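> @MW can you paste both from yesterday?
MW: sure, first one:
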Amino acid sequence: MIAGRPRASDSQLLKRHRYLFVCINRRADDNPKGCCAAKGSEDVYKVLKAELAARGLAKLDARVCTSSCLDQCATGVTVLVEPDHFFYGHVTVADVPEIVEGIASGQRVERLVLTADDLAKS
């Protein structure tokens, strides 16, 4: 109980199936690692959020959140999908409809999923 209010039961809580964390980290232009923001991550975030809402998927299926560095600079724009615990990499605005369709169908967009080799580069 918090401040005299009863605690909501688990069945009453709004739980989303997935959370998509979009790295919007920004570094100096001369940083050798680069950054997702310079590769268009802020636009990816905005379009992904809008597309999920337009398809009615934002309430229960997925929530799009911004994130600072996800340590995948070599593969940016990077999106971490939880609780599935995988990364999409090299994401562009053009990829958003396919990602949203994947959320709707419960399927990953395999061509965007980072491999163990990709993850080792960062």
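MW: second:
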Amino acid sequence: MTISKLFGNITLVLNQLIGLLFIVATLAFLWGVIQYILASGDEKKLAEGKKYIIYGLVGLFVMLSMWGIVTAVRNTLFNT
């Protein structure tokens, strides 16, 4: 196995993992939005909804960053 093929396989796995984590982060964000909407003025439930919204947004940002880094490294090393 060549180094190029090894990095190709690693990139493939990371891209699939990042896609899965995008889904998880999106679901966390949507769960927070639903909780926030259904809180009906209850401060504790509003705070919990906000927490999930922030976690989801941070997760989406991290996943987007990871995807960009993986793509940049792949393009830099292998000019694809």
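> thanks! DSSP finds two helices and no strands in the chain.
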